[in-house]
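[Solved] Which block belongs to which protein?

Original post:
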Amino acid sequence: MRAAGHAPRRGRAELLCVAAAQRPPPRSPPPRQGPGAGPGGGPALRLPLALERLAELWRRVSPTDACAEPRGSSSLGRRVRVLVNRFALRLGPQFTGAHVYAVSVTPRGGEPQPAAPELRARAVAAVARERGWPDGSWQFDAPAGRLFSLAPLAPPDGGADVALPAAGGAPEAVLRVTLAPDPAARLPAAPSGGPGDAAPLQALGLLLRASLCAALPQAIPAARVMLLPPGSAPRPAAPPASTSRGGHGGRGGGSRGGRGGRGPPGGGRGGAPGDALGPLQLWTALAAGAKPTEMGWTLQLDTSRGAVLPAGELAELLVGGAGGAASPAELCGSRAKLAAAESLVKGAKVQVRYPTGAQSRVVRGLDARPPARYTFKPPDGSTTTVAAHWAAAHGVTLAHGHDWPCVMVSARAAIPLELCAVAAPQPRRALNERQTAELIKTAALPPEVRLRAIRAIVAGQLSGFRLRLLQAWGVSISPEPLEVPGRVLPDALLECGGGTCAEPSNQGAWRPPARAVTPARLQRWVVINLGGAALRPGVDVLLAQLVAQLRAAGGSVAPPEHVAGGGGGRAGGARSALEAAAAAAGGRPQLVLVVLPERSSAQYGELKGAAAALGLVTQVVVAPRVGLAPGRVELRPAVAANLALKVTAKAGGASWQLPGGPRAWAGGLCEAPLQVLGIDVGHAGAGGGPRRRPSVAAVVGSLDAGASRYAAAVSEQSGGEELVLGLADMAAQVMAAHAAANGGAPPRSLLVFRDGVSESRYAAVIREEVAALRAAAAAVAPRGAAPPKVRRGALPGGGRDAVGARLTFVVVSRSHGLRLLPHPDDPSACGPDRGGNVPPGTVVDRGVTAPLAAEFYLNCHAGIQGTNRPARFNVLVDEIGLSQDGLQLLCFHLASTHAACARTIAVPAAVRYADKAATLGAFTGGVGAWREVQAPAPGVPARAWRPLQAAQRALARTPGPRDGRAAPPAAARPAAAARRRGSSSGSTGAAARPRPVLARSQAPEEDAAVASQAPVDDAAVTQFDVDSGKAEQLAGVGELGPREDDVLPDSLADAITDAAAATASAINSGVLRCQVEILLPEFWDPISGPIFPNKGDQERFWRMTRRFVEALGAALGAGGGGADGGGGGGVKAIYPDAGVAAMLSYQWGDRSFAIDSLNARRPVSPDDELIVLCCPDPPGAEEAQRAVRQVGEQDEAAGSMERPIVLFNQRLSSGDVGIGLNARRLRSTFLQRFNVTYSLRPVGEVGTVFRRYPGLWKVFVEEPALPGRYRLAAEQPNRPAGEALDLIIMTALDPDAAAAAAAGGGGAAAAPKGLLESLGSTMASMQRFMRSLSQ
């Protein structure tokens, strides 16, 4: 039956598909021939021979610790000579003997708060003028408050007062400047690789910037670069035709300007740069910075391009950037032109011409209303126009008050356009897509041209670094770039279909294989053509070629369904078209191929967001990019082949993979099974405060032995946060997916690539993210499994005994500015690409690497345009024990597994997938909401990337380690284990066999004679003794042998002891932020929190916290803090308010821990070894966060390891105070850092959820035939809740009803309960399950 919206021309498409399948598919032109080009480029390598070559290669790689190897021990690969854009830098005695001062600038007579950096700089400059400090003899870092001086300065007694005048001569501020010698700062002649390098780097940065400003007076200082105006920098000459390799359009700056050129002007695509840039100018950007290396200090210098808004009348500039406007008057009648003009100048500084003089203002936007029609209310309450105001207040008659727009300098302040001008050129960073593309094209200089440009600047404007200021400070810089030893590693061997292997041979590309190693199986897929009928003929041809390619590769592909998507509608049209696609496929299609009529980032985002919400896997094709246009079909031969690679991956197949499993392509160094992880955080917005858009964190992990298929977990977190919050749960999900795809065996070795983290956060990454990964590995490890053998390393955090898997953690970065340039005298150092870059596989690990760091630079790919940026790899932790050669080889080979193209990419495929998952995850997120989605990316089977369904999204919104609703990540549930009744034959009336309550790890005790007792009545439920460790014995209880529900506690004391033991185990494993929750229905309301309906309840509630704190302290061996509450070291318990803390301090005089309250000014002291926040409530949320921050600040100031913090029965977000913005912020910034170590909670009427670190989350349901006993219904790494938990319990109790509910069937089984009935059932179940614990 044909669905609505189904296109009527499917028959023609079927015929085309059948016809195309009967002829060989078109092939892309072969790559440059080289030795062993692989399939299509030479004789294919058979798989057995490839495995032999790999085994021989890995025999040359020794399995030793990468971090323990001496420098220069790596030797694999052929040697090449490489130049880098760094220059040797030496520090003379003038620099090393300079004096360092700490500067404090505060308002005089006011609060002792530091002034803004700009005021600090002006105040210190005023003091320098007053005291006659020689120019150039001192440098001041205003943000850091540190001053460097060649001569000793006499600090003024009590400080110097400085009055900073404002415009008009009135004093703006009176500041007090205080100087004090900084004895901790040293300026060594050689870098040490530690914190001592901060001061010399700071001083060198100030000197270099001041020297460049003096040498380049026309340059504009911008963020991290100096912008040189056109004509001031020498223009690099184009290389000779023989070396430019510019056959297809002058890549590299050749004189030919044919198709695809990406070189400097003169050899690019047609059209002048001004066509896209408008009035913007392209200036040369010069970036300079000091870098510490193992060989000494160096200067890194690079050249690029930057967009600059020139000086001139603002009206003329707007016309040039308005997309064809003839005058400013046209901006008032065209929203599109007004928006284009506004994007050009928004944020720029303009001078407004007042009769009394010009004043500077910042452009906030444009308003289409001219001054004569823009009305506002002045302070007197009347209504007037902008034109009338200027005429009355300033005596200015506007010439264009009726036809030119207004310039908005604030939300309510409008300025006439004709009075505004740009006084000085200004850098512009906010560019549209066309402007960005033009900027990249002109900045892409080939290595040879880039090297000549840098040398010309050094010899010209910088006078060979013979600059007066540098010489005065004793800084000498070599004018020649450094030469470093490089090596070209052996390339990967890639297994294809038919038992063959592709061999890129350091060419960076290979011909797509004739057959895929895992062909695609597409039986139900849909095509949406948003271009309408005009594009339908071209789309049919493209589909015919695509189907032919997939079938030729061994795939089974059915003809697709077609859905008319309209004429390229956006937003709502995209979602409706995807819904129609699902309907046309008769269910959820395996793939939806969407054809866009034009390139649009907004429309692409809307499509991906709608697809993720509907759970669809999509592949987007932009018609002009593949040669499709109305009435014109110019498909290039490689289009269908490349599209087939992407479709194969998204359909669950793989075109190629690393052969033989990890023991072959990793040399057996990694304990199998091995999982490759990629981690990244994407920041979608800017600005601070509550309006900042949330960041998106992504974790991807390989699923198969060939590292070709990946699964992902994506979550939102607080905007701008660089660390991955809640990494433990996300990593556990992808590890569990790996186990599910490999017969239940979790990974034993983890090779983790972390993208996008700065060097200043390395310590935090080791402290938090590495610990979270260890916790995740421990959570998915099978019970009773022996820990893997760990080769101990010398890096911080390395060598710690792993619980579930060995871990190697590598940070990958490309934002370092280093360039690898082939040496002109070494022809073998030039790679195969047209630009003349170094070959793929070129590695440099000496000469430019940081001191004491296990790092290297690796160029994995062949350049497409410009000079390649190698990836920098920093090994933070190595428990696997890879050698330098082995790790470098693995990183290079994993860059060949990207499924979207038959080329090596710049980084390992896992890094690219994590980046793409974070980018696509941003399309599905909402501000302030936390959710967990999976986004499609190449190389991932459809089921692994399918977005979460309604039940799963409900699970993601429930409290977890990254959430904080009424119940936080720990869930409490009682277990009547001590009163479990067995009813098997022969056991009726038999005596029970009590198990030890407080010593779970001891050997089973001998049978004991137990007297029969009557069951405890309901009236006695609340009269229990927290300190009692005795399990009640009941009549008729029989011993049934070992059962899965034996993990449940026997009593409340048993639960507290188990929670303390689990938390201590987590802390000893490196999990330093833990969370425990044991909820008793007598004391705890699911919405409001603690309730004390009976006499003595409050006392018993606090006694439970004492029992836990003492048990945890004993398990960890922490000393007591004394009974005075002052905290003399050991364990400290912090209670919600001072009243509770005082009462408990008085009552518990014999306690073994210190007590304080969240209300105290400093509730924690540096001597506290363990901090337990007991039952913090919503009013104390800010204080709880402050206390945790104080712990971190104290540990950082002392330079010691981070101390553990435990949340016990926290209620920081409650139904009584709502779960609005503040609660969401709390979840995203605070609770995400705490891992669940013990969880016990009843759900529904017949089930319970339980977790004990490091085990998985377990769902138990009651055995109907065995009252008091429970059977295991589910076990998973992430916490079950919401609809997912309901489905688990329904499946365990009534599989037929669960299947009907999952299929959307009706019936009585699917009828939902009413609200009051559900609440009543929940409360009844809580009392039922907790009754045994409350005796």
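(Second protein starts here: sequence line, then its structure tokens.)
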Amino acid sequence: MTSTPHNRQPNIIDDTLLSAKLVNDASEAAPGLDPLKVIAGLLITILETIRDVKTSKKDWAAFGEHLSVQIKDIYDDLSRCPTPHSTELLVVLNTYEQKLENVLEKVRLTKGRGKFERWLNSRTDKEEIATLRRDVDTCWKDYMRKIIVQLHEAAYQIDEGVENVEKDTKPVEKDVKNVERDVKNVEASVDAIDDTSYLAKLVTLPSATGADHSTCLTGTRTGVLDYIRRWADHQDTVQVCWLTDVAGAGKSTIAKQLSGEWKSEGRLGGCFFFSKNHPDAANNQAFCDTIAAQLANNQPHLLPSIIDGIKAIGLVPSLYPFEEKLQKLVIQPVKDAAVVLVIDALDECDERDRDILLRNLLRSLTQVSRLKVLITSRLERDITELLGSYRSPAESLHDVRLKSNQDDIAMFFKHQMEPLVRSGDLTAEEVTQLANRVNCLFILASTACKVIQKSLTPRSRLQELMDTKQNVLGDINKLYLAILTKACQADQDGQSIGLEAPKKVIEVLQAILAAATPLSIATIDLLLGNQSTGRIVELLSSVLNVRHDGTVVILHPTFREFLEDKRTAGTFHIDITGAHELMAKGCLATMKRELRFNICRLESSFMRNKDVPDFKERISKYISDQLQYGCTYWLSHVTKSSPGLGKASGAAALEFVEGEFLLYWMEVSSALGVIPKMLKDLQETGRWCAEKKLKDRIADTKKFLTTFSTPVSESIPHIYISTIPFAARKSYIRQEVKDLFPKTMSALTTHSENWPEPLQQWRGHTDHVCSVAFSADGRRIVSGSFDQTIRLWDAETGQPLGEPLQGHTGWALSVSFSSNGRRIVSGSSDNTIRLWDAETGHPVGEPLQGHTSWVQSVSFSRDGRQIISGSSDNTIRMWNAETGWPLGEPLRGHTDSVQSVSFSADGQRIISGSYDKTIRLWNAEAGQPLGEPLRGHTGDVLSVSFSPDDRHIISGSDDKTIRLWDAETGRPLREPLRGHTGYVRSVSFSPDGRRILSGSYDRTIRLWDAQTGQALGEPFRGHTDSVQSVSFSSDGLRIVSGSSDSTLRLWDAETGQSLGEPLQGHTDQVQSVSFSPNGRRILSGSNDETIRLWDAETGFPMGEPFRGHTGSVQSVSFSADDGRIVSGSVDKTIRLWDAETGQSLGEPLRGHAHSVLSVSFSPDGRRILSGSFDKTIRLWDADTCLPVGDSLQAHTCRVQAVSFSPNGRHVITASWLTIQLWDIETGQALGEPLQGHTDFVLSISFSPDGRRIVSGSSDKTIRLWDAETGHSLGGPLRGHTNWVLSVSFSPDGRRIVSGSSDHTVRLWDTETGQSLGEPLRGHTGHVQCVSFSPDGRRIVSGSVDKTIRLWDAETGQSPGEPLQGHTHYVQSASLSLDARRILFGSESTATRLQDTGISQISDQQSPPITNPSNNPSSQAPSPQTNQPHNSIHSLHFRPGPHFSPPGFDDCKLSEEGWVSSSDRLLYWVPPNNRHGLQSSHVLTIPTNSHLRSTWIDFSNFCCGTDWTRCRK
């Protein structure tokens, strides 16, 4: 029964009440949800009371439901939020509780009303409820702001309130007051509260927020603190304060103290504490994200600006350059805000990264006049160069001569030792003596205090430290040595670590130093295989710190430096490469011990990892901390070990990668979401590895993960279900595990022997490739060409993405991606600039017009907001990338064509190079030149580029040199780089600025060391014409080049090797193909000047290519006995070959004066017929290779087509307007030329009985001729509205089929000349080729619309979908005698054998092939008669149900490669198998083509809840 509106309210209340009780029960059971217990209890009482009210019950019920949703959200939020909760959050929850008490009071009043009172107040109840709801919702918005802050602050583990409470409760009180002010500040962002999910995209670093550092003791460091406070308070002071001193002087403590003060005052923007203890905090990768997240926390009113910045950057902020992230996430949000940033220990940041950080930060200060930045570091040279003018004048923190420092040390000791003095363990006098003896270095004092405090006998330990002979209190390194020595001796309680104490101590320290992320004591024990870590950490507690999360880190960087310096550490010296080897060994042992099949105990293969409801809980439950660490970092440790590893470690690594444990490791990597990191680590390990066997296994693993990254990353069961069947046959992984996992599907027939590689040459453009560029994420490449198109390519496979981008009416001279990869800009010789959507390929807006000549160079600014263009009109223009409007006037100054332009990284400068032989720098804001032109080249400047840090400029010229310039002074740096022997057309810096890349007209690419100017290795060779454009990938590992040879190439930036393997076949267009008479072999001839034989069943090449021709092979044919092959070539010769050995038989047949376009054996194999571009036909003796008579000369134009009559006595030829019959014996023309067509004769064919000839012409007609008399039989057959490109007789000679440029196929009656039925429509382009099946029941047609269609010759209906597959022109096609297969030769360099899908040709014939087991070689076709070989365009094959496992209906193949049924994942298919999977009746040659066929045997397929049965 359907509920009525009347009885719906009680159901709402009951459902809502049940939900509230569930939340209440959950809050009672879960720790940390105390604030929710009272609130949930109140809601239950409210709902129970609402159930009994009589007035406005519907409104009260809706309000109760609204409250229930809010409280459920509170439960979800608090469950994710670690305790203790912030004061601000507790305050707002308390307020929310009070609001609910008000609601309860009102509900109770309503419930207690009498009947008259209820009637009296019925109108005001709605207003009362609305007011209550507004009050609650206002508080709810406050809660949302606070929970967002709490959730993000929780990531940083900052608990500064605890330290403040120990000293003073005022900051806490101040925080409470600030809650009210913060509420007002963020009021403007309330409406955008949903946008805060964008903050989750930031890659923040909790360890960099200073949680490990302490604040200053009250009364100490007053001088320096007061100075910095005054600096921060006054806006007229410099924006940067640099506090510098020696290591251990207390800089970080001061930074922590001030950041805490500024935070409590509401002035802190954010802080970043660099640290070598945390590898992620030793570079600038997470700096911008971490500061931005803190800005959102500390300055909520900046939240909308920060979110705008995240949106501008896109979905993957980590791919953005540092300078852009700094602008978007930090500088622009604080543009008008008076905030302070704190950057501590900058010296612990990688030198290159800190240089980038400082230069970009200092350059941005003019944009943010109210921003103050406190920076602390040691006195390093590179930092001093940039920050020298900002150095704090405050007194040295460690100068022993300063009384303030002595007093601070004394106060510190007094405070630290006070508990020991009160207990009587030490006297005040002893503490004073200790303070006087300690050098005024804060780390010395702090470490000494910890040593004494941790000792069971403080006085004796103090006396040891004060021993004047040791002098440990005057030198931190001596103190460290004393601490380690003591730890290796007997403990105070008489218990020692063991006989190997020094070794155990060193191993623990090795683990701590080498750890990629801080580890707990238990994890270190399990990785090292000992039980001593806890005791060692306890003994070294004065130099090691156990953090709040239980992980252990070095207390101060000076201890790390001590250990890594053999001169100071002596026997305790730690070789960091040895430490990494120790950790690699521990990781491998842990993985071998704990990894297992289906480690997360997943019940079904139908779901992605993310869709498993309790997936995170399974990770915590089944994957230990040590296993998570080992799986994530073992490769990193291997790579950082000494080359070759130790013998035992190397053997362990090899053993691990040789078995099924490799797949189990992938399971954990998938669960942890670290597959991308594993791919990068595998690449690094492959470079590092010296031992060949291990190197080969690592390479195989990388290819496995690269090929199957999608299923491995997304669903653990599919590591087995979807990878083993499709893995390359020669893959080590497949060979070693396939027998262990027998219950998987099998991919049959044309299985790839080796892993798929990108093509060596990417073909698609039909003219010079002028410009190439990588997208920022390295996944796509864009190219522009003289063919007026722009193309997108997959950077992994080399396959084109979508159709060419068309719109320019001139050459596409320059192309570039925007930094977020969403837009492409192109410049053209049509004088315009175009913007394109990189996803759809559609043009964005109208062309940008303004230049009066060719646009030679275009580029986006780093923020994507502006476009710069350089033109042959001698000017440079700037454009708004959103509106397309020009920005200001053109930049004028060059006196000749501007060939290259580029923005600086910060967008403030523009560089240009010109045919006037100069380089110019411009102010991007003012449009004015900066200084004088840079002169030095003696030829045209063809390419210019900034270095990544904007400090240098690189230029290439037609003087064949490369020059490096100082971007500030404009002066040349060192001599020109010489090596190219042709114009230097393109130059570029590597992303790290350490290498220079150049491409030249000498057809080579070169790499250069940017520091020394020396060439790195040999030139990269491969292109066959000038190199027009070169570009690095964003990771610097790959190079793409575009050339005038119309191709793109991908190169390994380290080795200079062309990436990818050539297809196992032709390397250029396939011009001709033919079956052998017995149907078992396929013959092909190509523009690559070779002939190849292929196995018609397997598609594998048979022997080596036949080489001998020096030009394109235009035509090939077998002799009738299958023993010989004849070929004709553009080199003007004909060659005979032994079909078994591939050996040339005798000398080439010479006689034609031009290209040989067509060759054929006579039916008896005794003669050869050839037609040539020289307008002649020749007959040859196939045994002697001598010409038979003179050449047949009757045509006045090239011979378009030739054919023997069925009896072999006559020959027919076609050329221009005429057709000619010839007697094969006499060589004489038989009668006059057959004339009647009024335009080119494009196709001719004999009837099966040889008595008639049919011809098709560009005059749009078909004609029939009497082969004996040469007379026309009736009038022309009219009906086509465009050229007739192909004609053919039916096997019984009663019908003709024709294909035309009017996109139709027509059937004709040969007796009456009448058209049979309506035209066959379906093609969307010229129909280039038509043919009957041998039984005459089917017609096959091929078209420039890239499809082949099969038609029922009786009904004219297409029996199926168009056959799809080729992506380039197919030059020839042939139908087998049994009509079951069609053979195609294509410009894609692949030969294809397609099953026609014809289920029954005659009563004796069997059904079509559905998998290879049904197609034994014994069923080869019978010898066939000559078939017409016409040219067609690109073919596509019909999709079918071949990919559906039994029992699963409505299966779909997604763009990502997943085959699914009703949203259940069944299996995943690699890109190179997807085409063949949907077109299962295809044999593709070569077999490693991406068009290869794929059949799947599901007989052993286990999936769903049975998936674990795939393993034995």
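Accepted answer:
You had them paired correctly. Confirming on the second one: The chain has a mean pLDDT of 79.
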